[in-house]
Amino acid sequence: MRARTTLIRPALVLALVVSLAGATAGSTAAAPVDGPDTSSFQKLSAPIAPVPATEGADAPADESVARATALSSPAFPDTEWATFRDLNLTRINYAGVNPVIRHGALDSLATTWVNSQSNSTDPQLDDNIESKVPAGSLGGVQLMYSYVGGTTAEMQEFLDWITVENLRYDAIDPELTDSGIGIAATATGLYAYYIIVGYTHSTPASDELPLYRFYKPSAGTHFYSTSAGERNTVIGFPEYRYEGLVAYIKGPQATSTTVPLQDLNRFFLASAGTHFYTSAPAEYQAVLTYPQYSLDGVAGRVAAAPGTGLSAMHRFFRPASGTHFYSANPAEVEAVKGLPGYTYEGTAFFLRVAS
After folding, report:
1. How far, in Å, CA of 355 to CA of 215, rounded?
2. Can you name the residues that pair with 23 across neighbouring β-strands?
3. All structural domains of the chain
4. Pick from 109, 103, 118: which is nearest to 198 by CA?
5. Structure pTM?
6. How many alpha carbons fall within 13 Å on the CB side of residue 345?
7. Which terminus of the chain is more exposed, N or C, with fewer CB under 10 A?
8. What is the torsion angle, in degrees rounded to the nearest 10, for the CA atoms of residue 226, residue 229, residue 231 and residue 237?
């Protein structure tokens, strides 16, 4: 068992590599490549300089697409999301800091790097990571762990050590905001590589509430919440994938002299385990009479007409399941329009998209 980590703080850029061997219960454990002492931990430092906004790899043309869309590699989507969820639960439950979001460009970097290390029993830090992360990162450190050999119980103990004993010193930094992860299979097990970066994001105005989004793959729909407490609870549900802060809506008591505001009502459809959102008064009254829907309440207020700084929230209907899909991301909207099984219903309301 071996670990390499940097403990230089403040930790604003963090890379984590984990090599897992003997992961299957009852399997024969691989011999440790560094000799019989599988309980030793080694630490290596590798500071990363800040990356000015004019340097580094270019972000995708529309990075909000990457943040607003469920991300996963084809090979290990469930494992990646489970690991990502555990990281956020550590941040929430241990340190009381905000969860990080998955970032498409960082996912690509992590996947590329871990694949380049997949034939090695001694994976290395990426010495050039600071020149690869999207421009504007706040700088920081890399963090790498490797595990080789041992029993399933020893592997779990090692992973617990990562989550409880070490991530709490680095990955719980409240200034970390975005992450990427890649996992590759090797002859000795699995390598999992994190990149966790601090970026400056938009913040809500005094009369606004943050709108968080989750994707539920089994239903093909999204769940939205303005409650940080509810967000933190749902992050722990394995059927949901946390996509981050995607927009802002007005608080329940907000008023406006520039655009008309309407209550955004949230209903729960128990038969599908999904939610329905409407700000149209007539539709709200109609849905109240449908026995299959239960009213959760008013999430906040949204604009009923276009306005400065506002974007349209589009709505789709899925006839096969009787559920709805919502998105304020133009690229995602156009992509879903081309998918079978989704009927475009038009603009539902307007809100301010987060950046």
Report:
1. 19
2. none
3. 2-197 (3.40.33), 248-353 (no CATH)
4. 103
5. 0.78
6. 17
7. C
8. -150
d(CA 85, CA 215): 13
CA distances to 67, 76, 106, 111, 314 from 71, in Å: 8, 11, 11, 12, 21
Sequential pLDDT tens for the chain (355 residues) = 333 333 323 334 445 444 443 333 333 323 222 222 222 222 222 333 444 544 434 333 333 333 333 333 446 677 778 878 888 988 898 889 999 999 999 999 888 888 887 777 777 778 888 888 888 888 655 665 555 555 666 556 655 655 555 555 667 788 889 988 887 766 666 677 788 888 999 999 999 999 999 999 988 889 999 999 999 999 999 899 999 999 999 999 999 989 999 999 999 999 889 999 999 999 999 999 999 999 999 999 999 999 999 999 999 999 988 899 999 999 999 999 999 999 999 999 999 999 9
| Distance from the Cα of residue 146 to its chain's centroid | 23
β-sheet bridge partners, residue 262: 302
Residue with token string 């990363």: 48
Structural tokens at position 353: 């998209």
